[in-house]
Known about the structure:
This protein has helices at 39-54, 60-74, 79-90, 100-107, 111-118, 126-136, 143-154, 159-177, 182-189, 211-229, 231-240, 248-255, 261-266, 270-279, 291-306, 315-329, 334-346, 356-359, 367-373, 376-385, 394-398, 420-435, 446-454, 463-474, 477-483, 488-491, 501-508, and strands spanning 3-4, 11-14, 17-20. The protein has three domains: 39-94 and 162-279, Hypothetical protein af1432 (Orthogonal Bundle), CATH 1.10.3210.10; 99-157, no CATH class; 291-491, Hypothetical protein af1432.
Amino acid sequence: MLRESRASPGLFFCPDHVHRLTPRSSVASVPGPPGTVRLADVIAALTYALDLTEGQRPGHTLRSTVIAMRLGEEAGLDREALGALYYAALLKDSGCSSNAARMSALFGSPDQELKRSMRLVDWHDRWKLAMRTARSCGVGLNPVYRIRHFLMVAKTPSLTREIIQTRCERGAQIAHVLGFPAATSEAILYVDEHWCGLGHPFGIAGQEIPLLSRIILLAQTVEAYWSEHGTAAALEMAQKRRGTWFDPTLVDLISRWSRDGGWWDTLRDLNGLDDTVIALEPGSAPLVATDERLDRIAFAFAAVIDAKTPFTARHSSNVARYAVGIAGAMGSDAVVNRDILRAGLLHDIGKLGVSNRILDKPAKLTDEEFAEIRKHPTWTLEILQHVGAFRHFSTDAAHHHERLDGRGYPWHVPGDQLSYMARVLAVADVYEALTANRPYRDGLPVHKVVDIMSRDRGTAFDPDIFDAAVALAEAGTFATLSAVTEDRFEQLQALVPMPSFEERKGRVA
């Protein structure tokens, strides 16, 4: 699991490595009007949040993309296929949060550490899988609970398939909603199928598996082993799984890279990795992140955030709606409202780094667990500062737990340093949290929420903003806003029709 250094809040660290994500320029130069932002620039920067969710080392997704693109070129893909592969590799883990709660509950362990550990085991070796499962169950719990969780997993033979299917389908839906071609969604949907037919979720084999999926599976697995054990071990793993997990032809291609030490070394430069990936985008005219696309990305990643736990299924979208409602009532213009919308959708992106064993805990949190929760604004700041198109509101989004009296967290920022946007988000965030169901209580009625929050009027909350929110709440406006279901965010929660295997096979034929 990536953890935050207590000594330096701007650091992500995991065992044996410490990394600082250096903010890149606010815009990327592409053909078009001054200030145009490349779509790849935005998505590449946000993959650090996906790495956080998966418990992978920072840059895992970007390194996997670099490996996948080289494999694609050497496999002879045309430009169109390379374009589909490029965005599929970047979005391969976009469904990763959707299975976090179930995995954590069944295994009784922090989901990030669990995911990282299980990605390194060969599922086809039943003995090794059983041993890794046993070590991964009930981490930190007493032996009785560890055994109980192991038996729960053992009694659920369809567990792996169901968890992977949820993850792959969700990722494919997100790629679809973001407007990428069918080949991109398809590559994500089948990314965990194995050459021998023992993969998931459909158990298809060989050439039936889309080539892009085969490439990404090899690329991401090699990267995970490379990050942990180095080039030789990663390529040895690929050879051992040749013909079982991986397409033999692709393994033969990547095995030729064993002496290309300089190329592998370029993957170690975390601060230059973004630029390396951006340069790989196929085509002479890179895709541009229009306002419409930036909105779609914010909605999509809000869905990733809220899928982390069933108790926040609508939190980010509701906070965004409430915040825009408050700002509109106070006379904010369209430009400010759009920034508030995006900031509201993304304010909790740092929660992707918090274990579901904490987020879903039905009892009172310990001091240590609450300390972990308090880290998420720091991660929000770190991630959003890395996204040029969102950097200007990154601090405001991260300040949503700060208070006027300086007693908020994690930075104890005083009121005279809290922006208008941060103050609006603070009110919207607390109102939504109190009215929503949580593991330890049902959502509270409006009058009760107003009574609770009014005690902090002028100390935690800006009085004028609080009064505007109360007026909207008591008029039923917030209830109306939270009942809206026909927008881009909810499209991600509905099943976007995906082709069945029979349909896909017929189309290929």
